[in-house]
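pls design
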């Protein structure tokens, strides 16, 4: 029955177009931007125009670049005062983090004359463990922002998990889809084509067990503990029995990806 409740909650988190328009047209002191890591420039990615001397440097992932570009254009609308970024250091503290590259993008001098975001309006939370949704929501609470109405920009497939953890930490967020937001700001944007080109189905499949985990573990304690212990992360969930229409299957096991092998933990 709990899984059925989770599905109902998911439906309630998808705003209709009128509601989304109302959300975007309000004033916000803070826009929180969800980080989607960085990638390393390689010879194989030379089609992007990377010079040989740039190989080994980091760049924003396609998701990160899309989200921060949407955030910048949303800021240009004049309803956002400050932008919050999370460090998300994918390759350690010797490489630039997601927040470093996003901040650089926001402050970049624009050739087309558009304004750049002032450094004083960019807030970077630079803790080493801010590469998980639960720790990011916990950080917002620790910074005393739980009572602020935070506009939270995320890829569509990630919205449910953010809402679950926000409820767990009591943080007041309005989570909006980066895809739908960009579509609202740029009417020439082909949203359906974008969804065909980006590997979103693969991302959704990876997100599903994490979303179910977040529903039962609202403060994200399990992935935090596993990360600190170096034991891996939850990658899948096994359900008992065949699917019966209208009846959820009971959660039976949880699969943990460890350093060398997959381990199955009974939930019963």
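designed seq:
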């Amino acid at each position: 029955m709990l899984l059925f409740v989770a599905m109902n909650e998911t439906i309630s988190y998808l705003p209709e177009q009128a509601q989304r328009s109302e959300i975007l047209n309000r004033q916000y002191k803070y826009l929180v931007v969800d980080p989607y890591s960085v990638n390393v420039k390689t010879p194989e990615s030379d089609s992007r125009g990377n010079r040989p001397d740039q190989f080994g440097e980091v760049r924003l992932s396609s998701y990160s670049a899309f989200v921060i570009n949407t955030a910048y254009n949303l800021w240009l609308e004049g309803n956002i005062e400050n932008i919050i970024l999370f460090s998300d250091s994918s390759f350690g503290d010797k490489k630039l983090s997601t927040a470093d590259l996003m901040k650089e993008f926001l402050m970049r001098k624009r050739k087309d004359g558009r304004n750049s975001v002032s450094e004083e309006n960019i807030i970077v939370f630079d803790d080493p463990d801010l590469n998980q949704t639960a720790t990011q929501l916990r950080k917002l609470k620790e910074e005393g922002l739980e009572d602020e109405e935070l506009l939270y920009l995320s890829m569509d497939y990630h919205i449910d998990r953010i809402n679950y953890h926000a409820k767990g930490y009591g943080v007041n967020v309005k989570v909006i889809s980066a895809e739908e937001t960009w579509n609202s700001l740029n009417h020439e944007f082909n949203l359906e084509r974008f969804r065909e080109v980006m590997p979103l189905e693969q991302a959704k499949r990876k997100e599903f067990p994490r979303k179910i985990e977040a529903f039962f573990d609202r403060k994200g304690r399990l992935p935090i503990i596993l990360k600190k212990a170096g034991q891996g992360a939850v990658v899948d969930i096994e359900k008992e029995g065949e699917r019966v229409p209208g009846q959820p299957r009971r959660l039976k096991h949880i699969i943990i990806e460890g350093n060398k092998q997959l381990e199955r933990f009974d939930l019963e």
